[in-house]
Write a structure and sequence with these properties.
Elements: E1 7-10, E2 19-23, E3 27-32, E4 38-44, E5 49-50, E6 81-85, E7 109-115, E8 118-129, E9 132-143, E10 148-160, E11 162-172, E12 182-186, E13 189-192, E14 197-209, E15 214-237, E16 240-258, E17 263-274
Antiparallel strand pairs: 1-2, 2-3, 3-4, 4-5, 6-11, 7-8, 8-9, 9-10, 10-17, 11-16, 12-13, 12-14, 14-15, 15-16, 15-17
Length: 280
């Protein structure tokens, strides 16, 4: 077949920072260290579908000010967005998730290389987190074959006492094309795609679409609180302000209480699987 370069690092979106483009026989992903070290594209090459395809919610001139102002995002909504929330229970279903760390949408240092039959990207940032400061390192491994990627996190307090809820958020944009039908499974409960849902002490979330027929499974090696919800955007139309769902956000989170030098570690696997995939 065609010869591909499995790892390329270049300034893809002309923002002055290099992104890493990783390719195997099944997936292409783009890691943007300038935008929170998130994966901003994940494409299934067999179907030519980008699962991330989301827009950032930007402040617009016509948006309301003050309490009624719709939320907007600091960065693009990608996969493996790192968030620090207040040190209490999982986020309430009817409230916007409030980020209290300085990681999401911010620049990370990146090192990308070929490794052990696949590709590895290591990203890290040290910045403010509730109660002090923390270093977040995430290591993304993509094997030479297949539709799964592994992401290993280490969160270490560097000063103060970090007392927070650490969250890893994956945003899927394809799930809100028109006429999309499917389901979300959190732990062993299956929920409507457009409503989402939540679970405590679970280790997996499955987002399955009927058309196109494709499923994404995220599993964690550490049981987590999982929150799956639609992400709404507000836009101007002839009828006035319209709220539309444009992505599905899946947040895995854990309480962390870390003195300087103490670490929290977690590993997540994201696997893309279609209905009837050909090949090995």
């Amino acid at each position: 077949g065609e010869r591909r370069r499995p790892l390329r690092v270049f300034d893809l979106d002309a923002d002055g920072a290099d992104e890493a483009v990783l390719t195997n026989d099944t997936l292409t992903l783009v890691v943007d260290p300038g935008d929170g070290g998130a994966i901003v594209e994940l494409s299934d090459r067999t179907r030519a579908i980008n699962l991330v395809d989301t827009l950032a919610r930007r402040p617009e001139a016509y948006h309301a000010e003050g309490a009624d102002a719709p939320p907007y995002d600091r960065g693009r909504r990608g996969l493996f967005v790192d968030r620090f929330l207040a040190a209490d229970g999982p986020p309430a279903r009817d409230r916007e998730i409030a980020d209290q760390g300085d990681f999401r949408g911010r620049p990370y240092a990146m090192h990308a290389r070929r490794a052990a039959g696949g590709l590895r990207v290591t990203l890290d940032r040290t910045a403010a987190a509730p109660g002090g400061a923390a270093r977040v390192e995430k290591r993304i491994d993509i094997p030479g074959h297949g539709g799964a990627i592994d992401v290993r996190y280490t969160v270490e307090a560097t000063s103060g006492r970090v007392d927070a809820r650490f969250g890893i958020e994956c945003n899927f944009g394809i799930f809100f094309q028109q006429q999309t039908r499917g389901a979300v499974t959190v732990g062993d409960r299956t929920l409507g795609l457009r409503r989402g849902g939540a679970g405590r002490g679970v280790d997996r979330c499955i987002i399955a679409l009927e058309e196109p027929e494709i499923a994404v499974t995220i599993t964690s090696d550490l049981t987590a609180d999982v929150d799956v919800r639609p992400v709404d955007t507000i836009s101007q139309s002839e009828k006035g302000l319209e709220r539309t769902s444009q992505a599905l956000a899946c947040l895995f989170s854990w309480p962390v209480a870390l003195a300087p030098g103490e670490r929290f570690t977690a590993g997540l696997r994201l696997a893309v699987d279609g209905g009837s995939r050909g090949g090995a």
